[in-house]
Amino acid sequence: MADGGTTDAIVDLTNCDREPIHVPGTVQPFGFLIALTADWLVSRASLNCDAFLGLDPHAILGQPVSAIFCADAIHSLRNRITLLRGADAVERIFALTLVDGGAAFDVAVHFSGQLVVIEGEPAAHDEMEASSMVRSMVARLGQVDGMTAFLRDGARQVRALTGFDRVMVYRFADGGDGEVVAEALRPGVESFFGLHYPASDIPVQARALYVRNIFRIIADVTAVPVPVVPTLDPAGVALDMSLCLTRAVSPIHVEYLRNMGVGASLSISIIVEGRLWGLFACHHYAPRLPTFAQRSAAELFGQIFSMMLESRERAETAAYEGKARQVADRLMAAVAQDHDLLANARWLGDIIFDTIPADGVGVYIDGQMSFSGLTPDQSAFSTIVTTLNRLAASQVYTTDSLMRVMPEAEVYADRAAGLLAIPLSRRPRDYVVLFRAEQLRSVRWAGEQAKHIEYGPNGPRLTPRKSFEAWSQLVRGTALPFSPAHLRVAEALRTALLEVVLRLSDSADAERQKAHEKQELLIAELNHRVRNILSLIRGLLSQTRDSAGSVDEFIGTLESRVHALARAHDQITADRWAPARLYDLIEVEAGAYLGEMSDRVRLSGPNVLLTPGCFTVMALVIHEMLTNAAKYGALSDSGVVAIDWRVDSDGSLLIDWSESGGPAVIAPTRRGFGSTVIERSIPYDLGGHAEIHYKLAGIEAQFCIPSAHVASVLPDRVAGERARPAVAATPGLLKGRNILLVEDNMIIAMDGEDALRELGAEVTTASSVVRAREAIAVQPIDLAVLDFNLGNETSLPVADLLAERGIPFLFATGYGDGLELPERFSHIVLVKKPYSGATLAQALGPVMAGN
User: Fold this and answer.
1) Collapsed DSSP state (helix, strand, coil) of residue 762
2) Helical (H) or strand (E) element with 173
3) Which of 150, 183, 193, 818 is deepest in the core (most CB within 10 A)?
């Protein structure tokens, strides 16, 4: 199964805590593990302690941790352990020196029962800025339209971050079966997109562990496990290693991966509403171990991806259920006027099919039946109602294969293979039943679904399938399932219809009052759910902001400020990263944050254009100033904010901020992140000045932006005018062309892919000379865009290969006019970064014409 190497396909996990530590062979020794008792005595250790710390694990058992680690390391570990919250919490420390004079380690700590488990691996000293990387990835996800594109872009970004050959988004169905619903691949790697996997590939126990431990990696499938010493504690209990980074996996799962030819795997759980929605399942065909920082960033991205996915699903569900409520209101209002409509199957079908698509409807009330569309005959329908009374009286019931509960239903599966039954009375009797006809379809399984039983020393067990070639199965007697959203709508309709039935027995005035109360209840419940959704999302983003250097810090930073950055990014990218107006920045931020109160922010100054880098910095500063004003300053009351700016004689931009009419101002007693942004961003990032004065009558601030960041001063601002219109790219300019994009920066590569796809091209991306050569070897290339500098190498070998094959190409560079091409390529078009679809179109025009 393509489960990305988390535990333990086809294995009983009841003994999973007895598995030894996994030690990847390519980076041996991979890491160490030490388990401490409450009084900080060593109770367990891995044999790799000797390799890392120069200590015999047998000798340190029962010794205090002070005999192993230095005092500073113990202090740091104790501080980080105090931050652990919840049974499955894990905290990390990067580049911690554990032994005086020794090497630095990346360390993870968590609780295992009453023990503290400390794991470490040699520090990678990765200079990757994880927060910036994840922020960029999340910003891109937020701009993707449609669930399919959202999942595909998530897979692309995980692959770009981890470097694995294949990244799949694997989604679980209700029955436990899984399907690869999105995928990102290295060129030349076989696609698994659309393949299904049986539920037995990831048993219930393994799925439960995925919820607890959301990130697992097997860096080398061929690695030799190393035991924990001692295997059992004095009470005869094995160490529970469910949350351990260095924990090995089942030999059966290792065999499973070897059968697939996989050398390393990684998985990130996708948790939606507390349940396992699916996985990012990653495969690599050689051993691979991303750095501790990369893995932490990938784990954070997975958590935020889950939240964004949950938000999208909830928004779709809320909109859908809002429409369903309107249908229920229409149905109740119509039946209140004419109760005979309730027995009219055609009318009910016309109403209900707007929200729950079906092929036919049958109504059974007091022994009377009516039908519309594709349905069974009366005799079969009567049998179905009897079965429903036995299976799910007074409850909404659904099945996508009626013949599984009624074998005789096979004869009319072409008309009614699946159903959704809505009871109309409190006692088993009356129903509205929606039918769906048989949907013949071919399901592509990853190997034949049947598995074989082998008997070994531990009794019978399932063995991994040794063939992963796609195996098709024609599914008969099954209808398209009714979704959970359909079931919720059906429950709402059941409530509405039951209300109608009850109302018919009372006086008209009493029934109208009950209907009004029911409608108010449904509206209040919907509003309650929407508020809960919004509160949940905000709560998830607002937790534990004070944890510096941890995953929680990343989430806290993203929570309130990424929106301001996104708005600023929209403005500067509207003109393809051109300078943008200060006036627009303040106006948009005030409008987005204050709504109708934005007119209380008064602006005055020339039409100044700021460079993109300065624009982003100022977006955060203005956002924090407006936030403070709305919470504590003039905008929290009836006051106003005046923002005036001018350009002085040396071209610097001077901005004066003045608040008045608000409550009395009290200077803060501590400096938070927002104050730091206001006071240090402009001096640190722009080389300017920032001063803020907490005067009793209102806050006053002065900012100075050096002239280097002031692009120009235009004539007076005209409403709706943009500083410089973007050059339009011609859609379809590259339609039918296969483009090779060679770029070593993940974010730039993804932007380049999107720009080329907007022009109609099919794009293959490579991050190195080796990957580019592989791509050229396995598929035809029509054109190529080559980043000249690829980290420690250049793309000149790729250019030579393309020239030899007669494939046109151009160079891209971030060095601007300072790059000198070799004489043999002096005629090649050179594009300066950052580039867009328009600039690429302009550059590729002559290249295509010359070809």
Assistant:
1) strand
2) none
3) 183
Structure tokens at 93: 């420390």
Helix (H, G, I), strand (E, B) or coil at 2: coil
Do both 831 and 841 map to the same domain? yes
Q: What is the CATH number of the domain that holds 130?
A: 3.30.450.40
Residues of the domain holding 687: 552-714
From CA 420, how far away is CA 418, in angstroms rounded?
A: 7
Give the span between the Cα atoms of 159 and 283, in whole angstroms.
10
Q: Which of 1, 311, 294 is nearest to 158 (CA)?
A: 294
Give the CA distances from residue 340 to residues 258, 336, 337, 580, 716, in Å, rounded to whole numbers and listed in that order: 66, 10, 9, 65, 69
pLDDT over 70 (residue 566): no
Residues 401, 417, single domain; the answer is yes
Assess if residue 731 is contained within a domain: no
Same domain, 352 and 483: yes
Position 796 scores a pLDDT of 92
Tell me if 732 is assigned to some domain. Answer: no
Among the listed residues 427, 66, 17, the one whose alpha carbon sits nearest the alpha carbon of residue 250:
17
Q: Residues of the chain with pLDDT > 90: what percent?
A: 13
Question: Contact 370/344 with Cβ under 8 angstroms?
Answer: yes
Cα separation of 296 and 319, whole Å? Answer: 35
Of 313-322, 361-370, 785-794, the one with minimum mean pLDDT is 313-322
Mean pLDDT of the 173-197 span: 85
CB 231 within 8 A of CB 17: no
Question: What phi, psi does 736 have (nearest 5°)?
Answer: 80, 0
Residue 266's φ and ψ, nearest 5 degrees, are -150, 145
CA–CA distance, 420 with 397 (Å, rounded to integer): 6
Tokens of 302: 């997975």
Beta strands in 314-451 (DSSP E): 360-365, 368-373, 397-399, 418-423, 431-436, 441-446
Rounded distance between C-alpha atoms, residue 293 and residue 93, angstroms:
10
| Distance from C-alpha of 195 to C-alpha of 178, rounded to nearest angstrom | 8
What is the structure's pLDDT at 152? 93
Token pair for residue 395? 């409850």
- Looking at the fold, whether 352 and 395 belong to one and the same domain comes out as yes
Q: Is residue 542 part of a domain?
A: no
pLDDT at 246 over 50: yes
Number of H helices, E strands in the chain: 20, 36
At 815 the pLDDT is: 63
E strands, 390-547, are 397-399, 418-423, 431-436, 441-446, 453-456, 459-462, 470-475
Q: What is the pLDDT of residues 613-657, one digit of tens each?
A: 788 788 878 877 887 887 788 888 888 999 999 999 888 999 999
**Do residue 573 and residue 487 come from a single domain?**
no
* Amino acid letter for position 357: P
The answer on 486 and 379 residing in a single domain is: yes
d(CA 645, CA 309): 42
* Domain contains 349: yes
- The whole-angstrom separation of Cα 217 and Cα 267 is 6
pTM higher than 0.70 for the full model?
no
Paired tokens of 261: 């030819």
pLDDT in tens, 717-733: 543 343 333 334 566 77
Please tell me the distance from the alpha carbon of residue 628 to that of residue 639, in angstroms, as a whole number.
13
Answer yes or no: are the C-beta atoms of 657 and 643 closer than 8 Å. yes
pLDDT single digits (tens) 460-518: 444 555 556 665 555 567 888 888 888 888 887 787 777 766 665 554 455 566 666 66
